[in-house]
TrEMBL record:
Coiled coil (residue ranges): none
Lineage: Eukaryota, Viridiplantae, Streptophyta, Embryophyta, Tracheophyta
The name this protein goes by in its record: X8 domain-containing protein
Classification via InterPro entries: X8 (IPR012946), X8_dom_prot (IPR044788)
Annotated keywords: Cell membrane, Disulfide bond, Glycoprotein, GPI-anchor, Lipoprotein, Membrane, Signal
One cellular component term from this protein's GO annotations in UniProt: plasmodesma
Species this protein is from: Digitaria exilis
Chief location of this protein within or outside the cell: membrane
Domain X8: 56-141
Length: 174
């Protein structure tokens, strides 16, 4: 992706975050005293979830550079808030000790914690939705549920993930 395209995408994502924040009441728009016509605020569709045959998982995309995977893994297990304790030595998902395997587990945890929204599986292009269970041995990947609904908290976190993914993309280009 060219730098100009990434900058445009980043701007759209940040704008979307502000719209979502405003509709949840965290940001209050200022109104002029002479303003009499209310302007509707558009928000992203709630429950924008991608389900393939009812169940999906988010995994690391094969072929993504090691640097991109590591950056996305660090974000998912850090600021993203995914519980990566099972990736530590002795954890159920430590073996195989590969970046692709660890990133897949972390991406899926983040994806499941954020309402199974397709944007919660972006990770700057490093994530991919799959319909085949990636669990192996004693390492069990959480699965999406078709009854999941996009609450405003999940929606806010999904928008945060989208903005973070765009920032990861910008960092990789700079």
């Amino acid at each position: 992706m060219k730098r100009k395209e990434v900058m445009i995408l980043h701007g759209i994502l940040v704008l979307g975050w502000f719209i979502a924040s405003a509709s949840s009441g965290r940001i209050t728009p200022q109104e002029k005293a002479e303003s009499v016509t209310p302007i509707p605020t558009l928000s992203p569709p709630e429950g924008n979830m991608t389900f393939i045959d009812g169940v999906t998982w988010c995994v690391a995309r094969p072929g993504v550079s090691q640097e991109d995977l590591q950056n996305a893994l660090d974000w998912a297990c850090g600021p993203g808030g995914a519980d990566c304790s099972q990736l530590q030595p002795g954890g159920r998902c430590y073996q195989p000790n590969t970046l692709l395997s660890h990133a897949s587990y972390a991406f899926n945890i983040f994806y499941q914690q954020n309402g199974n929204s397709d944007i919660a599986c972006n990770f700057g292009g490093a994530g991919a939705l799959v319909k085949r269970d990636p669990s192996f041995g004693s390492c069990k990947f959480l699965a999406s549920e078709t009854s999941a609904a996009g609450s405003s908290a999940m929606l806010g976190r999904a928008w945060m993930a989208m903005v973070a993914a765009s920032l990861i993309g910008l960092q990789l280009i700079v």
